[in-house]
Structures are given as C-alpha cells and as structure tokens.
Amino acid sequence: MHATALCRETGQPIIGLRHSRDGHYLASADLSRTLRVWYHGRLVLERDLVSNTARSRSLDRIRSFEISPGGYSIVIASGDCVREIELASGKELWRESRPPVFGFLMTCPKALALSFAGELALSYDDGMMETLPLGYPGRKLVRWRDHDAPFSMAYLCDAQTLVGTDGITVAFWNSRDGYKRAKWMLGRKICAVAASQSGGTLAIRTLHRVLIYDLGQPMTDNRQATIPPSSSRSPLPYPLRASAPVLRGLPSLAVSGDGSAIAAGDQLGVSIFDREGNLLDRYPQVKAATLSVSFVPHHHTLAIGSTDGTVVLWPYRTAPKLMPAFVL
User: Could you tell me the end-to-end alpha-carbon distance of the chain, in angstroms, rounded to an integer?
Assistant: First the structure.
C-alpha cells in the first residue's frame, strides 16, 4: 500500500481531517480537542481547544473545521463557539457564539462549510443558519432559522448552493438569501453528505450504502422552476448515478475535488469508488478502525484518520479492480 504515517499512534481517535484547496495544508482534530495542522508534512500548528470554564467543558468537541481557500487561516466549530485562527502565527483572529436559548440553554455550532469563493456557512443546534464572507466582517450577514438545520453540509460547485442533512432529510439552500430550493426524505438514516468542488458529484452516506448523484449543471435561480417544491417526499432534483455498498463502522465520507472518486471508511478500512460505483481500491485496517478521510487535492492520495490516533497518507489506484463493489 506504501502508506506514509503523518501522525503516529497518539491514543486519541482522529475524528476529522480537512485539506486546503491547494493541497499544501492538512488539518486534523482528535477526541481530546487537539487541532493539528501540517504544511507539506511539517507540523505548523497544534492547539488545545478545551474550554477554560467547567460549564462549557461538557460541550467541548471539535464538530467541524475548514481551511481558508488561500491557506491563510482555519475556521473551527468547537464547544459553544466558532473561531478563526491564523495558521502562520497561531493567533485567534475572531470568536463568535450565539446567546443561550431561554437564557440558560447553551447553543453550539453543529457544522460549518466554506466555499472556494470564501463564503462561510454555519449551522447551530437551535435551528439558526448563517452565511458570511470570511475575512470581510463589514459585509452583510445572512441569517435564517430552519427546522432542517444540518449537522453535515457542503457547498456545491456554484459556490452559492448549500447541501446538508439533519439525519433524516437532504436539503438545498441558496446561501445568499436562505431560500430552501429543495428538500428530500430518503427514508433511511443519513450519516453524511459530501460534494466535489468541480465535476458535479454529490455523495450521500447511509449506514450501509453510498449514494452517488450527478449534479450536472449547478442549481441556479433561473432553473428554479424545474426544481420540485419543498416537501417531505419530493424527489432529489438530481439523477442517481450509482449506489455502492459499504461495510459496518462509523460512517466517514469524502469526495475528491474533481468528483472522480468517493471514499467511504468503515470498521475494516476504506473503500474508494468511482462515479459509477465501481471499487477502485481498498485500504485495509488491521488494528484500528477508520474515523475520518480526506482527499489530497490534485493527487491520487487519501488521508486516513483512525481510532488509534494515526494519520496516514495513502496513494490509491485509479484503474478499476477486477472485482465489482458488491463483493464487499
């Protein structure tokens, strides 16, 4: 397999991995609330994000994070706040949190997403959603409340359409005004969504399958009439391209930047599929289970985070194997 260990066994499970869009930076988060950032394999930032107050400590968990398009900073949703940290100096640029619900119930961010144009989307557990341009605090903040506020979301390749899931439904929003363009109920538990920066690929992870959709043309306002209205049983406004089975385990998911490969982790390793659901390659885990995956942009390489605290970089094959995906 020729996998390279970037971070050896720390004993703390790696619950999240993210690459910068140019592939130079890789960030990881573990269960002990430690954030690490590497630049070409060299550790440049390590930060303990444990809260200083005992009241907030029970909520401490790094839920989501993204590296800015230019690799200038990293935005983290952790505990009861969202913060941005400069990568070069480790300086915290800003920190925001929502007021408590009913005056005493603490509100925490559930997820965040960052478009290639630098727009930041936030989702909170009180149902509030926000979008704002990263690094331009003077520009207008868009805020709306939604019962389908997602715990997993991503921007589509048009940089203004958000897709996310609350575990039951998949919804699409216009990030410029909060308008919900479509909503779809899958009829089974949804664990994660991921979308490509280009190439028009959307992947939805359930407990036992990966559903791959062909986005085709970006969903824009002038095509709004062709999109079904919001309803609990409306079909997804994109055709299902493929469906691939996955093994048991904590459901991690990632889509490559060009949409040509989809990675799904499980208890015994990671499977790489193409857009048609064919199995390209398989990374086996022996001692630990996979918790997080992230593609290295512009390279056929996958970063894998495991329950034993290791982070490895694995070059996968791009030619389909002789066996189809259903043999998993």
Answer: 19
Token readout for 184 is 């779809």
Residues 6+ apart with CB under 8 A from 104: none
List Cα–Cα distances, 120 to 32, 96, 97, 211, in angstroms.
25, 13, 15, 26
Query: Which of these, 179, 244, 254, 327, lies nearest to 26 by C-alpha position?
Result: 254
Nearest CA to 81 out of 110, 103, 101 is that of 110
Q: Which of 125-129, 182-186, 237-241 has the lowest mean pLDDT?
A: 237-241
Whole-angstrom Cα Rg for the chain: 19
Would you say residue 267 has pLDDT above 60?
yes
pLDDT category of residue 136 using cuts at 50, 70 and 90: low
- Averaged pLDDT of the chain: 86
Q: Which CATH superfamily is domain 4-327 in?
A: YVTN repeat-like/Quinoprotein amine dehydrogenase (2.130.10.10)
The residue among 201, 188, 158 whose CA lies nearest residue 176 is 158
Q: How far apart are CA 29 and CA 23, in angstroms?
A: 17
What is the phi-psi region of residue 160: left when phi exceeds 0, alpha when psi lies from -120 to 50, beta otherwise?
alpha
Burial 55-90 (b: 16+ CB within 10 A, else e): ebeebbebbbbbbbbebbbbbbbbbbbbbbbebeee
pTM equals 0.89
Structural contact between residues 219 and 237, judged by C-beta atoms closer than 8 angstroms:
yes
The length of the chain in residues reads 328
d(CA 65, CA 202): 20
Residue 321 confidence (pLDDT): 57
**Alpha carbons 235 and 213: distance in angstroms, whole number:** 12
Buried b / exposed e over 255-265, threshold 16 CB at 10 Å, is bbbebbbbbbb
Specify whether the CB–CB gap between 132 and 142 falls below 8 A. Answer: yes
CA–CA gap between residue 236 and residue 250 (Å, rounded): 25
Sketch the domain layout of the chain as residue ranges. Answer: 4-327
